[in-house]
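Immunity protein Imm1: structure, please.
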Amino acid sequence: MQAWIDSIATAVADVAELNAILGPEPPTGVTLASDDGRRTLHINFYGDRSDLYWEAEIDLLLAWGPVPPDAPAGQVVDDAEYAYDNPWFALPDGAEPFKITAAQARQAAHEFLCTGERPTNVQWVVKP
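Here you go.
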């Protein structure tokens, strides 16, 4: 995997290398790309809040928020309007859509490193 920060690529082979990049004070923007360049996870850190953008051959998705307890895995909705009407996409009190915690962003980065696939710890909506 490659981690891109400010147009500079760094090879990431394991969790320790990823943790060194994400560190306690992560850069604002990090793009993780699969070795074949066909899947990318873009992460923006804003203190304890973050947002994620997933790009693959047929997917352009935005993270909506964390997966609620008992929700079916791997859910994707066509747009935010449907997410607001979908009870599985309900957000914790006061949470804004498209924002997740920095810890959830790190978890998504670790999952992408380990699986090479779209992270499953957040729900996704198709990017408008």
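Notes: Residues 102-115 form the longest helix (14 residues).
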